[in-house]
Design brief:
The protein has about 100 residues and is of the alpha+beta class. The chain has three helices and four strands, in the order ββαααββ. A hairpin with a 4-residue loop joins strand 3 and strand 4.
């Protein structure tokens, strides 16, 4: 089976009061969306673009509410918007942190 993926970046602000991080700050996250055979990688990127624009340069506390604005919930957000995606990975490479949302 062939798996295709596309990768893009989103830059967003957030604050995580429930985790003791009350100050407003931002990150640039890399997002990778996977799909089984079907769409080409270029088509996949085009399908993801409207969802990317919903988050890019936005304040995640507003955009993801009522979910907490964590990288885990960014992955969940993309997976909910893209029901055909088999996996969504969100990561911050320089810090070595990431989360994968996989369909069961």
């Amino acid at each position: 089976m062939m798996e295709v993926w596309c990768e893009f970046h989103i830059s967003c602000s957030h604050h995580l009061e429930e985790m003791g991080r009350k100050s407003l700050h931002g990150h640039t996250w890399q997002v990778r969306v996977y799909a089984n055979e079907g769409p080409s990688a270029e088509d996949l990127r085009d399908l993801c673009e409207p969802i990317r624009l919903e988050l890019d340069h936005k304040h995640l506390n507003d955009t993801l509410a009522p979910m907490s604005p964590t990288m885990e919930n960014i992955a969940r957000f993309f997976a909910q918007k893209l029901p055909w995606a088999t996996r969504v990975s969100v990561f911050r490479s320089p810090e070595g942190l990431g989360a994968d949302y996989r369909r069961e």
